[in-house]
Amino acid sequence: MKKAFAALVVGFIFAIGLGLSGMTQVTKVFGFLDVFGHWDPALMFVMGGAIMVHAVGYHFVRRMNAPVLDTQFHVSKKRGISASLVSGAFIFGVGWGLAGFCPGPAIVSLVTLDERPWMFVVCMLIGMRLFTLLSRTRIYSPP
Fold first, then answer.
1. C-alpha distances out from residue 7 to 1, 69, 75, Å
2. What is the pLDDT of residue 53?
3. What pTM was estimated for this model as a whole?
4. Over the stretch 71-95, which tens digit does the pLDDT of each residue have?
5. Which candidate among 3, 79, 111, 122 keeps its CA 20 to 30 Å from the CA of 66?
6. Which residues, in sequence order, are CB contacts of 39 under 8 Å at separation 6+?
7. 13-45 burial, b if ≥16 CB within 10 A, otherwise e?
Protein backbone atom coordinates (compact mmCIF):
# COMPACT_ATOMS: atom_id res chain seq x y z
CA MET A 1 0.00 0.00 0.00
CA LYS A 2 2.88 2.38 0.78
CA LYS A 3 4.43 1.78 -2.67
CA ALA A 4 1.14 2.47 -4.44
CA PHE A 5 0.58 5.66 -2.45
CA ALA A 6 4.15 6.82 -3.10
CA ALA A 7 3.70 6.14 -6.84
CA LEU A 8 0.47 8.14 -6.80
CA VAL A 9 2.14 11.09 -5.05
CA VAL A 10 5.15 11.05 -7.39
CA GLY A 11 2.87 10.78 -10.43
CA PHE A 12 0.82 13.71 -9.17
CA ILE A 13 3.96 15.83 -8.68
CA PHE A 14 5.11 14.86 -12.19
CA ALA A 15 1.70 15.83 -13.61
CA ILE A 16 1.80 19.21 -11.89
CA GLY A 17 5.29 19.81 -13.28
CA LEU A 18 4.16 18.95 -16.81
CA GLY A 19 1.16 21.24 -16.51
CA LEU A 20 3.07 24.19 -15.02
CA SER A 21 5.86 23.92 -17.61
CA GLY A 22 3.36 23.96 -20.48
CA MET A 23 4.48 20.57 -21.78
CA THR A 24 0.86 19.44 -22.13
CA GLN A 25 0.39 22.04 -24.88
CA VAL A 26 0.81 20.48 -28.31
CA THR A 27 1.94 23.84 -29.70
CA LYS A 28 5.00 23.73 -27.39
CA VAL A 29 6.03 20.35 -28.80
CA PHE A 30 5.45 21.38 -32.40
CA GLY A 31 7.29 24.66 -31.72
CA PHE A 32 10.30 22.71 -30.46
CA LEU A 33 10.27 20.38 -33.47
CA ASP A 34 9.95 23.31 -35.93
CA VAL A 35 13.70 23.98 -36.12
CA PHE A 36 13.47 25.71 -39.51
CA GLY A 37 10.47 27.89 -38.63
CA HIS A 38 9.46 29.55 -35.37
CA TRP A 39 11.58 27.37 -33.08
CA ASP A 40 10.57 27.37 -29.39
CA PRO A 41 13.38 26.14 -27.09
CA ALA A 42 11.07 25.81 -24.03
CA LEU A 43 11.10 22.01 -24.17
CA MET A 44 14.90 22.02 -24.08
CA PHE A 45 14.91 24.13 -20.90
CA VAL A 46 12.32 21.90 -19.23
CA MET A 47 14.42 18.85 -20.11
CA GLY A 48 17.56 20.56 -18.84
CA GLY A 49 15.85 21.35 -15.54
CA ALA A 50 14.68 17.76 -15.23
CA ILE A 51 18.19 16.46 -15.91
CA MET A 52 19.62 18.73 -13.21
CA VAL A 53 17.05 17.56 -10.64
CA HIS A 54 17.75 13.94 -11.61
CA ALA A 55 21.51 14.44 -11.31
CA VAL A 56 21.18 15.76 -7.75
CA GLY A 57 18.80 12.96 -6.75
CA TYR A 58 20.95 10.31 -8.40
CA HIS A 59 23.95 11.53 -6.44
CA PHE A 60 22.16 10.56 -3.21
CA VAL A 61 20.44 7.42 -4.50
CA ARG A 62 23.75 5.93 -5.67
CA ARG A 63 24.89 5.78 -2.06
CA MET A 64 21.80 3.87 -0.87
CA ASN A 65 21.81 0.09 -0.47
CA ALA A 66 18.09 -0.18 -1.26
CA PRO A 67 15.20 2.15 -2.04
CA VAL A 68 13.08 3.45 0.83
CA LEU A 69 10.01 1.39 -0.06
CA ASP A 70 11.57 -1.78 -1.48
CA THR A 71 14.27 -4.31 -0.66
CA GLN A 72 16.34 -3.75 -3.82
CA PHE A 73 16.75 -1.51 -6.83
CA HIS A 74 15.31 -2.93 -10.06
CA VAL A 75 17.80 -1.98 -12.76
CA SER A 76 17.93 -3.53 -16.21
CA LYS A 77 21.01 -5.61 -16.90
CA LYS A 78 20.83 -4.82 -20.63
CA ARG A 79 23.52 -2.44 -21.80
CA GLY A 80 23.57 -2.73 -25.59
CA ILE A 81 21.56 -1.14 -28.35
CA SER A 82 19.11 -3.64 -29.82
CA ALA A 83 16.79 -3.59 -32.80
CA SER A 84 13.77 -3.48 -30.49
CA LEU A 85 15.23 -0.44 -28.66
CA VAL A 86 15.85 1.44 -31.91
CA SER A 87 12.49 0.51 -33.44
CA GLY A 88 10.67 1.43 -30.22
CA ALA A 89 12.44 4.80 -30.08
CA PHE A 90 11.58 5.39 -33.74
CA ILE A 91 7.90 4.57 -33.23
CA PHE A 92 7.80 6.76 -30.11
CA GLY A 93 9.40 9.68 -31.96
CA VAL A 94 7.13 9.39 -34.99
CA GLY A 95 4.06 9.21 -32.76
CA TRP A 96 5.23 12.19 -30.74
CA GLY A 97 5.94 14.21 -33.87
CA LEU A 98 2.62 13.36 -35.53
CA ALA A 99 0.36 13.71 -32.50
CA GLY A 100 2.28 16.26 -30.44
CA PHE A 101 1.88 14.11 -27.34
CA CYS A 102 4.00 11.65 -25.48
CA PRO A 103 2.39 9.43 -22.86
CA GLY A 104 2.92 11.56 -19.73
CA PRO A 105 1.58 14.86 -21.05
CA ALA A 106 -1.24 13.05 -22.88
CA ILE A 107 -2.46 11.42 -19.67
CA VAL A 108 -2.21 14.74 -17.80
CA SER A 109 -4.14 16.44 -20.64
CA LEU A 110 -7.10 14.10 -20.18
CA VAL A 111 -8.42 16.46 -17.50
CA THR A 112 -9.03 19.12 -20.17
CA LEU A 113 -11.66 16.88 -21.80
CA ASP A 114 -10.22 17.84 -25.20
CA GLU A 115 -10.72 14.98 -27.66
CA ARG A 116 -7.12 14.94 -28.99
CA PRO A 117 -5.41 13.57 -25.85
CA TRP A 118 -8.28 11.11 -25.37
CA MET A 119 -7.80 9.77 -28.91
CA PHE A 120 -4.05 9.58 -28.35
CA VAL A 121 -4.37 7.68 -25.05
CA VAL A 122 -6.92 5.26 -26.52
CA CYS A 123 -4.62 4.59 -29.51
CA MET A 124 -1.64 4.25 -27.16
CA LEU A 125 -3.51 1.66 -25.07
CA ILE A 126 -4.50 -0.23 -28.23
CA GLY A 127 -0.86 -0.18 -29.34
CA MET A 128 0.29 -1.45 -25.95
CA ARG A 129 -2.26 -4.27 -26.11
CA LEU A 130 -1.19 -5.18 -29.67
CA PHE A 131 2.44 -5.29 -28.53
CA THR A 132 1.49 -7.61 -25.67
CA LEU A 133 -0.41 -9.91 -28.03
CA LEU A 134 2.31 -9.87 -30.71
CA SER A 135 5.10 -10.49 -28.22
CA ARG A 136 3.39 -13.79 -27.30
CA THR A 137 3.53 -14.98 -30.91
CA ARG A 138 6.34 -15.91 -33.25
CA ILE A 139 5.65 -12.78 -35.34
CA TYR A 140 7.52 -10.65 -32.84
CA SER A 141 9.68 -12.00 -30.07
CA PRO A 142 11.56 -9.39 -28.02
CA PRO A 143 15.13 -10.35 -27.10
1. 10, 10, 17
2. 92
3. 0.69
4. 888 888 888 898 888 988 998 888 8
5. 79
6. 31, 32
7. eebebbbebebbbbebbebbbeeeeeebebbee
